[in-house]
Amino acid sequence: MLEPDQETEQYPRIERWGSAVAHGSVAFVGIPITIILLNLPWSLLGCPVLSYMIARSFRRRGRVWGAYQGMQASVIQLLLLVCAVTAHLTSGFQVISNVFSFGAFLLFVYSMWAALDTWLGDDFDYIGISKLLGYVSAKNMGRPEVRRRWVTMGQNKTDDKGGMPR
What we know:
Elements: H1 13-23, H2 25-36, H3 40-43, H4 46-60, H5 64-89, H6 94-119, H7 130-142, E1 146-147, E2 164-165
Antiparallel strand pairs: 1-2
Helix pairs in contact: 1-4, 1-5, 1-6, 2-4, 4-5, 5-6, 5-7
């Protein structure tokens, strides 16, 4: 067993924090937006987007573990959003609404577990989606990233319209 001063960090701190924020985006983003602005299912719309943006930023930097954890988080946040919206839309049918609400709650607790594990630097694999997302993440890391110029300040070049791989 390692002594407290002999801790080894397998993954950099930025990857651990980014992955924890991606997994816990419902707690860090969705719930505060619910309290301040919107009603519940619609306040969760930004959570999968935030997780995906974190995964993309890690992919651009070549950080495999962070990109994989962010991709897993975005899929789970999307499933949680689908459960919450379905529970809201089926509110007339109490049993169906309760089933989807309970499913969203279980996914929320599961994602908080993932946020804690990744913050501590442990690998976290969601049941059922980890193999597929591991394959997708590995393929994405092998692809060249296309640089797109969103704001060109009038400096459009005819030879750079399609984007250049990095």
